[in-house]
Each structure stands twice: as C-alpha cells, then as structure tokens.
Amino acid sequence: MIIIGSDAAAITDAKDHLFREFEMKDLDPLRYFLGIGVASSPKGYLLSQTKYITNILHRANLTDDKIVNTPLEIHAAKFSATDGVLLEDPTIYRALVGCLVYLTVTRPDISYVVHIVSQFAHNSVFHEHTKQHIETDCHFVRYHLQSGTIALPFVSTTLQLADFFTKIHTTALFRFLLDKLPMLSTLAS
Questions:
Q1: What is the Cα–Cα distance from 15 to 22, expressed in whole angstroms?
Q2: Which end of the chain has the smaller Cβ count within 10 Å, N or C?
Q3: Is 163 part of any domain?
Q4: Mean pLDDT score of the chain, rounded to an integer?
C-alpha cells in the first residue's frame, strides 16, 4: 500500500491506524514500485521506468542503441496486417506490446507508436468492444456538454495536445507538442 499526501500528521495517523488493524511493515519512503522508480522533488514526485525500459530492450534484443528523432517516421506510418512475415509464435510480440503499453505511464510521448504496434497484437474480437465503449463515451460526453457540466473550448489544431497521442508528426511538431507536456528528462541532452 502506498500512502502519499501533503499532510504528514494525517499520513502518520493513517499508518498508525493501519498498524493497529493489520500486520504491516513501513518500508520508508517510496523508491520503486511495480517497475516505476520514484524520487521526490520540491515540485512533487518524479516517476521513471529506466530499469523497466532496459529490461524491455534486452527482452526484445534491441540493445544496439539505435536512436531516431521521432518515435515513428512519417513515411513509415502506413502498416497493414498483411505486411511482412507472420510470426510462428506471437506470444513474445504480444508480451512486448503489453510492456510498451505499461511504459506509456511515464512515457506518454510513445503513446501513438504503441497504439500502432498494439493493433497487430490483438484479434478482431476487441474491435466491437472498443466501438461500443467509444459510442458509450460519446453519449456520456454529449450529455454532460448539454447539461453544462463540462465545456469544450476552441483549441487551434496546431495546439491540440491530444494529437500528440493519436497522430504521427514531423520531428519539429513532435518536439513542440512534447515540450507542452509536464515531463522532465532524467537523461542529459
């Protein structure tokens, strides 16, 4: 169990209560949890999956350190299920895609690429479920928009951060949108 907050006294009271009710052990400040490294700073908590990323790269035999400017080159963004040779056992591919999905917790900048590769990890059964969920979400949003619970202000197409997660971009636009996200790089540039 992770207990965080800005009121140290309340945290102590909660922990004391839990210690009385359950057999527990305090592991001191959170450093690592579920593949995510945690460090505190004056501005809040910093999350990192560096060790997790390294394990993924080793598992996929991609440790040759080839780096690209943008997660996916624009001209290479057109893939289809019939491209390439089918894998004999797609289990490893599916597992790696699952790892990449989890990696987007701390790396939202790879969301679009993970979306592309995950399309090839699932069968068509998920399509109908996804379509139904999207329709439900649209009805929910429409209801709250009409009742005034939410507002949808105009945002110029060049400033729509959602595009960062759903579309492929030039290197310049990718970096522009990335700079708009509240992320810190733990690597020296």
A1: 10
A2: C
A3: yes
A4: 75
